[in-house]
User: Fold these one by one.
Assistant:
Number 1:
Amino acid sequence: MSFRTKLLFVVLLVIFASVSVVAYAVTHYTQAAFESLDAERTGALVAQFKKEFIQRGAEIAQQAKNIAEANATERMAIDMSRPNADLSLYVRDAIGSAQEHGLDYVEFVNHDGVLISSAQFPARVGYKNDWVTSVKDWNDAPAFLRKEELPDGEALSLTVVRTNSTVADKSLYIIGGHRLDKNFLASLVLPAGMRALIYTNLQPAFVPAALMGEKIDTEQVERFAPLVEQLQKQPQPMVRTIDWTRDPADAETFHAIPLTGRNNELLGVFFVGSSRKELVLLTRQILKMAAAVAAAALLIGLLVSFWVSARITKPVEELAEGAREVASGRWDT
Amino acid sequence: MSRLDAATRGSILAGLLCSLVVSPLECAERQRYGGTLRVELRAASVSLDPREWRAGSTESATDEKMGALVFDRLVVLDNYGRFQPELTTEWSHDAAFKRWQFTLRTGVKFSDGAMLTSADAVAALQPLLPDGQQVSASGNVVVIQSATGAPDLLEELASGRFFVYRVQPDGTLMGTGPFFVAEAAGGSRAPSSSSTAAGESNLAGSVPGAAKLTHLRFRANERTWSGRPFLDAIEVALGVPPLRQLLDLQLGKADLVEVSPELVRRAMQDNQRVWPSAPVTFYGLRFDDAQPAAADAKLREAISLSLDRKTMANMLLQKQAEPASALLPQWLSGYAFLFTMETNVDRAKEIRATLPANTAAGTEPLRLRVDAQGDLAKLLVERVAVNARQAAILVQVVNRPATRNAATATNASSNSAVGGAHLFAWHYSSLSPRVEMESMVNTLKLGNSNAAIVSSTDPEQLHAYEKKLLEDRRVLPLVALPEYIGLSQKVRDWMPARWGEWRLGDVWLDRSEPGATQPADSNGAAVPATQPGAAPPGAKR
């Protein structure tokens, strides 16, 4: 290999290495910035969800308190404290209270735990709700998640219990609740490229219909089964990326936040999905630009190095040629 | 002082005398002619053709009430349980009750003025009578011949769809009742009834034959044999939701409404007049072999033991219903009190535990279809599912699309094989326990009806037959509901039959100014402040 060629290769190598390092650095720092931004957005959405959760819980608590303090409820509490009270008098009261106070679920439970009236499942009246009477003071208890039994199945409810203690030692319990479903998700403000889903974990196995949210098709639902199953075993927050297609741009990163009930049982999962499309496209753009820059640099480098090497090697080659001619006896060269 | 005392005594005596003599004359309830009774009904449509009515159908109960306005029966049963002649003046039968003779009342006219003949009665009754009973005419006498003895024929004819009518050449029906149809809107099947079937100008007042009517206006029949009814007209609005009916009653927009059981207390709290009938609608469960689980006698026993009928009647239906332990109510059979339905969840669980988990409503739930319509049926079926779940029996409630006809529903259910169990509603339409039992068994396909037993009117045999049916547990009684009618304060002489017959021919409206009348008693009796209106020609005798 001639010196000229060697020099040419060295120059090209230096250019290529420089462009690659710059491209890698740009890609890496862009990706890191993107991940950081994504984490911030996810964190903000989760915080928004929690805030909404607390705010909704406070609203339900206020409505349940209003019901507990209503005159009609006081009359009910006094009536129910009497021996041989006629429960049938109040069997439809919960329906009216739910409509009046804008709650999805309202139930009145007697001091002995017997369900007096239910807005969501009137056929259950007369049965005992022992979990309500197991707590002495509900009035300061915050909202909690609960599996709500309904005539057509089960639902996830954000529930609050309040008591009417007009009659000492014979409290009347008021259970108020809102259904945690698509409507709840609709109240969240989602940035572009993000989506929120809720899975109501009310059955031991994965139930596709229990995953609720916007823009989710049936094919995608099944891909959540492993995540849910893992969360059912270990209810800890986790992050997973799902590749919807072979194209990495279609991948989506999901942050799963388990939602638990009063006894820490897993009742639901809140998924925050963040599309990787932006990042992948940006990375691709960077790589394309790097390739273009590298190609251009190599071409320019090739020409420049060719010219430079020519400038350096030409006098040497002429000197060598002169030397060869002198050696051959031509002294007039 | 002694003169004053004498004067006082005289005044008191005069007052007493006046009150004794004048009060019954002046203060007695005086019926008034005129006015329009505004009726609101839940049913979206009615059919006024008795041939279309199906025994046991809750929809046909409304049809029957409307039919009673335009048609008459041969005989009726009064509130004291005595048969009274209506279109017939006398009747007799042979020793074996196989041949009955009814002498028709003379001078009875249809609303178009044509005379009622025995041929009309024969033509009307023949399609309504069951197989084995032949009706014929002999002069002014209608003869009903039965293959087997029919000692309860009078009960049969005094209830249900056994009205006398005449079929017109255009397919419409003509009646002799106290009212005739002046306007009838709606209808989907009879071409003649697509809009107005009989206008005001058509005093013939024929009833659209096979049409489903959505709005009705009846006018008083001046020619009726029993004397012109007090009301001028009856306006019937159909398809009115229960709550709207109650509000209309409260606001004075309606005079007679149906009050659903869940609104009875509310109506009473609002001081509305509410009249309850005897329990006339029966809710029960029936099982077929469409699902293997339903064919399991042990499972049926477990479900029966899990059912809490008292809570259904006393809590869910707010004491406006009775827990049912028999198919026929006490007022109809007289022996219903002999049946009891035990609730024993522990025993139900034990029985359930002995059954294979994978076959008997364990892994695959027992499908329970709601054949009856309305919120009440939905509530009951949900309670059945909750009760069954307590005994570890999985029940899946299957709602079915609404159909108007109970008999159709029954047939459809057996064909589609969707449900293994069915919640059904049955309206008692006959005053004969035998006929009612036979209709129930045949319509609901409760088993192989043994004709020899079902045709017997002997209460002991009927009881034995019903006991056998209940022990088989292919049918489980749940609750029996009365009918509740809300009445405005204007409605007077409301004297319906306990079994739900309205008898609007006797009703009159107190149209005096509000506040000018004394408070109404339980029967709506009040003293009109104004003089009674002059009785029109053909007034009630």
Note: The mean pLDDT of chain A is 86.
Number 2:
Amino acid sequence: MLSLILPTYNEAKNLPELIPALEKVLAIPHEIIVVDDDSPDRTWEVAEELCKQYPVRVLRRRNHRGLSSAVVDGFAIAQGNVLAVMDSDLQHDPHILLDLYQAIQNGADIAVASRYREGGSVGEWVTGRRLLSKAGTRLAQWLPPVHSSDPMSGFFAVNSASYDRIATKLRPTGFKILLEVLAHLPPQSRIFEVPLTFLPRKHGESKLNLKVEWDFVLQILRIAVMRFAQTISFAQIPLFFVLSLIILAMLLPKVWAMRLLYTDAHMRSRVQSALTHAADQNGWLVSDLLVQSVTTDHVRVLHDEHRRGPDVVACLDLSLTSSVVTPCVK
Amino acid sequence: MRKVMLALWLELYALFLAVLQIFNGVRTDEAKYLLNIPYPHPPLARAILSSIDGWSYQEFFWRIVFATLLVQSVWLLLRLVHDLRPAARIVVAMCWLLGCAMVYQAGTIMMAPLTALEGLVFLYLLLRDDERHDNAGWIALFWILSLFTAYQAVLFAPAVWVLLRRSKSSAPLQMLLFFIPLALLALYTFSNPLALASMTLQAHKNADDTVVMRILDSLRVWALGGSVVLSIVGTYGILRSRSFGLIGSFVLVALYVLLARYDYYAILFTPLFLAGVIVVLRRRFLPMLPIGVFTVIATIVQLALYPPVSPPSTASFVMQELSVAHASGALLINGSFGHEWEYAGTLEVKRYEPQLLQTAGAVVCLAVCPPVFDQYWTQVGSMPDVFVRK
């Protein structure tokens, strides 16, 4: 069964045209879920009216806003084995849904209606928006492990089993839910693309604004970081062992140089006496001393006059027999 | 954009907490880390902190960094509770940001807040999901870095253990990833015998206290950790969680606090309490609004009774006066003193010993002054206990 999610915000005029058009096309088992973000034009009310005639369910979200999260919420209550999403502004051709559905039934994990595939087009967009979309697409194309010619498309279908495996990992912010899904699908996922030509908008206005673009930039950055971490994740265990070996190589000689302290209780008390005596004689703070090595006749320490800026550090040998303090002899 | 604004407000709050601590001046433990004095903690954090110790704004800079890390870490908690109702999310964030431990500790340059932050990261990973993951290496790297920041990170070992066990790595590899960092830390301890000695000394401090005193002191620290209400609800949540990682870490922190009952360890409890609250919230309803309100009230009462700002040590003032008096050579201090004296100036600081008087440049008496100051010495300004060589 196909579950089609229609995320809406102020689409009250478009829905009464879209749903009958979909019903004409969809000669397959299906359900339509309208996820409305409590539109001021009461789109949800219009959708509820349509429920009486068509297999439509309505999810009205009062505390949430955002296209991506609306799609995720819709997917969460969908019952079909093919989950699809399309815009509700009549710019997506409903006939393409059948191709997307068929692609998933034929074994694809995800099927995308692409504006940048041969035969597809962005339609009547002005040059500025056309360039912006192209640039955004280029930027987003190389990021996900599953490559699409149009990762920013809002018209796609996904196998519900493939989706369920990644659902908890998604961060549905902003408008680009397909990019998010592509970023989380495993690299071996099968993708199918269908050309899409954008139709002109009939009612309402575009939701593209500065905030949407900002969210997109943040999403790109987040996915880039995630992908980088994934890319270098093979190095995590070797990195751990290399770091451990470096620390071991630094510490082992130091511990070896002090082995007498831990093997001979008598040496411990002699070293303690020598340190205390030297500290008392010179007014040193014990915390300024760092033991370097212990031999049968002396203990070598670094005396560091801790202070702001460069410290004055002296290497000293404290005799264990005569209480004499002398500079270190190399 | 709303998140950016929230982050900016949080940063202002962090700045406020950092400034609050400026008035306290640098305390002995803070000076220890700022000057990279090698006791008792391992070197990672203190080496980084001291790398800019010649810079005049070192103290302020690190206070801001510490406060920022702690305050902005609220985003981790918010991610953990993103599927809960908004009121619950706000209260969880409030409990972290406005709890006693945070207000008292966030701007201090101490290892306890840093360890609490590391603990929060481990608990975040623990509570995020139950799925098997393939991040064992990253967790082990963070584990080793945490341990080499401060010994107390070991208190969160049960959480780390559960996280590693949950990974897709083989069991022997999981064991290696868990135990190698601990073994290296033990090796570091043996390479620095005076660290071992200083820890033994600390452990024997207040050894004469009765069991009742110990328990009461520990209860005070426990209460501070969650501003009482969160402590109670959080502990309940921890005990109900049936999570070895959470309960084990809580028990270790509680035992540690029973040994070393300093108020600044309260913040080690805070991430655990919040984790406990989140565990409960995921299963059943909790009246979060009263919890939030009582947490804030408890913090306000605590702040009123024990203001977070106390008079700073005289070290900085005395060192300035000695600088004005052109003191040079070693400064001898008679009586018990802390590392803030070393931090406050550029003179070499020594303990007062009579035989060193001849070569010293200045003397400060924090205990009763020995009657040895002759015509070669003069008092500094109006301070009767500070002398400089003429």
Note: The first helix of chain B runs from residue 2 to 22.
